[in-house]
Amino acid sequence: MGMNVVDKIFTEHLVRGRLTPGEEIALQVDQTLTQDATGTMAYLQFEAMGIARVKTKLSVSYVDHNMLQTGFENADDHRYLQNVARKVGAHFSRPGNGICHQVHLERFSAPGQVLLGSDSHTPTCGGAGMIAIGAGGLDIAVAMAGGAFHLKCPSVVGVRLEGRLGGWTSAKDVILEMLRRLTVKGGVGKIFAYHGPGVESLDVPQRATITNMGADLGATTSIFPSDRRTKEYLEAQERSELWQEILPDEDAVYDEEIVIDLSSLEPLVAMPHSPDAVVRLSEVAGEKIQQVCVGSCTNSSYYDLMVVAAILKGKKAHPEVSFAVTPGSRQVFEMIAASSGLKDLISSGARILESACGPCIGMGQVPATGTLSVRSFNRNFKGRCGSKEAGVILASPEVCAMAALEGALPDITKHGNPPEVTPSERFIIDDGMIIPPAHEGEEVEVLRGPNIKPCPVNQPLPDIIEGKVLLVTGDNITTDDIMPAGTKVLPLRSNIPAISEYVFENLDSEFPSRARQMKGGIIIGGNNYGQGSSREHAAIAPMYLGLKAVITKSFARIHRSNLINFGILPVVFADESHYDSVAQGVDLVIDVFHSALESAKGELTVTNRTKGESFKGIAKLSDHELEVIFAGGLLPFTKKQA
Ligand code: MIC
Ligand code: SF4
After folding, report:
1. Is 335 a pocket residue for ligand 2 (Cβ < 6 Å)?
2. Which among 164, 268, 559, 573 is most buried, taking Cβ atoms within 10 Å?
3. Would you say the CB of residue 293 lies under 6 angstroms from ligand 2?
4. How many other C-beta atoms can be found within 10 angstroms of the C-beta atom of residue 34?
């Protein structure tokens, strides 16, 4: 039976289990990446494991999220991350060097290898033929310590690309089309493997736009073959020695198949407040907008910025539009500066921001009340931009540029043909902002500011969980809802006691005080609970407030793992109709006798003491997950193993 590219890379990295969808497997990890907002916890946890040096082929620590230094906290974190990376054998990408995914793609991606990153958009490097998976910080710490990564073997969906993009369509429209068809939960438990005749027409940065935003389908990851175009990209990055050809066999088999004809696509946009609220641009053209942001790990390659510059060349952004540009990396920034692109952007009135996540995570550029912002980004959850009173629309860089000119969602027929922009054949190579690790045995002092507090640890799972229902949520609750980001909260990522005061702030600001008053309890959720970001703070901070279990209709993959990693039991309703019978404030008892959890069905009895009735819950945990949760979480488990 022919193998697809996922089979090929998985087979080489499999250290436990069989490659049967749904079965638990463990993969050896070659590379890790962390970013500052999740990285401080990951490195604190790595230190707590008592291992002196990282055991991966390569680990890189980036600073790109927490870049506003409105207080001492972020600067303290950056200093800690720089020292600790040097000490334990990781590379450190300095603030200003760019967004982790963009820089990793440029400077470290290696076809055929496995990358694990503490950021949900780690799949970006799937554009260069890697298996690149987002996970919680603690999973990364374990991988740095040489541990394998455990996951449920995903099914592989073959996405056959036919034809080629034309007119004003771009790679962004391919992934928006996927979101339109499959929704934000359509990828749970799946890997999207792109193949077919259309693949060749896309270069690596275009492929990376698609694999990046595959995260927003809830997918485990997405991957393109490593072919001639991958070789071309690595040559342009002067790293061709890392290239190896990885193509699907002619008769490769997939668990499911999807076909996209690239030539039939047209420009699409995702309307507020979900990446899957996708409509044709032509249906909404003319809608007034007040802000445009170009950048993010999805769309800030050299080509993306040059095409925006070319559209705006010699013109000014609409007087009612605030127009911001964040180059994805210093390499891209230097490249547009070396050409006329930067000048054209500046003359158009663009506000040029540093190479970082910036507005994408509410770090500045919060839109005005009641307005719409068009962004080349990947997430538009309500409140994520820093205001619940504004809406974010996701679009390609080309559509963003035209929107900046029109002050409205553009009518592309007014703009003639797209400009001719030649993608770069050679990039400016300068790794001077990436600090290599110290030699083994070299003394490195690790400084910790007062905002850096140790990561709290949970107790082993008891036989009975008792508690009040602290909150009942609807479907598609994001980790941004659970643990918001933005300028006020992000600086507290290294301080769990302080950040826990903001749990569910946008949904229910009373949550922290109620949880404390009730001495913890249980949360009830709908479908796809915990989608979005990989931030394990969405598990640690509620744990710190006493959260013991979450009962939902279904979970998003990374958040479910993060809950287990911190000893919180994820349960799903055996019969979803019971969701309606559990109200906030009722008293629940969950029998979690280890024998029940260990049984094949993982069926538990949940008693609603207030109503005097009971229902069944399912906690189907793999053997590894059971060991972890019985130990009180992955940190105590790993320590016990060591
Ligand atoms: C995001 O896009 O939501 C983030 C911010 O990059 C997160 C990581 C974080 O919360 O620190 C992610 O995608 O995992
Ligand atoms: Fe940064 Fe936004 Fe990408 Fe997350 S999605 S890594 S916040 S640019």
Report:
1. no
2. 559
3. no
4. 29
172 CA from centroid of ligand 2 (Å): 15
| pLDDT tens-digit map of 16-37 | 999 999 999 999 999 999 999 9
State the catalytic residue, choosing from 379, 384, 493, 578. Answer: 379
Whether pLDDT at 641 is above 90: no
Per-residue confidence band for 252, with pLDDT thresholds at 50, 70 and 90: very high
Q: Give the pair of three-digit tokens for residue 161.
A: 């690309």
Task: Please identify which of the residues 535, 557, 559, 578 carries the catalytic annotation.
Answer: 535
Distance 258 CA to ligand 2 centre (A): 27
Fold match, 5-264 / 464-641: no
C-alpha 289/C-alpha 370 separation (Å) is 10
Judged against a pLDDT cut of 80, whether residue 642 lies above it is answered with no
For the CA of 378, the closest atom of ligand 2 is 5
Region 621-630: what's the mean pLDDT?
A: 95
Closest CA to 57 of 10, 98, 99, 115: 115
- Tell me the best of 297, 300, 480 to mutate to test the pocket of ligand 2, counting ligand atoms within 8 Å of each CB and taking the most: 297
| pLDDT-based confidence at residue 348 (cuts at 50, 70, 90) | very high
Q: Where are the domains of the chain?
A: 5-264, 268-413, 464-641
pTM: 0.98
Is 318 assigned a catalytic role? Answer: no
Residue nearest to ligand 2 atom 1, measured at CA: 357
Nearest to 374 by CA among 322, 336, 333: 322
Q: What is the pLDDT of residues 570-619, one digit of tens each?
A: 999 999 999 999 999 999 999 988 888 888 889 999 999 999 999 999 99
Among residues 401, 355, 352, 349, the alpha carbon closest in space to that of 375 is found at 401
For the residues 105-113, what does the mean pLDDT come to? 99
pLDDT in tens, 70-89: 999 999 999 999 999 999 99
Q: Which CATH number fits domain 5-264: 3.30.1490.100, 3.10.20.90, 3.40.50.150, 3.30.499.10?
A: 3.30.499.10
pLDDT at 384 over 90: yes
CA–CA gap between residue 157 and residue 256 (Å, rounded): 5
Measure the CA–CA gap between 501 and 499, rounded to whole angstroms.
5
| CATH C-level class of 268-413 | alpha beta
Q: Which of these, 252, 207, 198, 210, lies nearest to 226 by C-alpha position? A: 207
CATH architecture of 464-641: Alpha-Beta Barrel (3.20)
Nearest atom of ligand 1 to the alpha carbon of 558: 14
Give the mean pLDDT of the chain.
Answer: 97
Say how far apart CA 633 and CA 536 lie, in whole Å: 12
CB 289 within 8 A of CB 319: no
Concerning whether 535 is annotated as a catalytic residue, the answer is yes
37 lines ligand 1 (CB under 6 A): yes
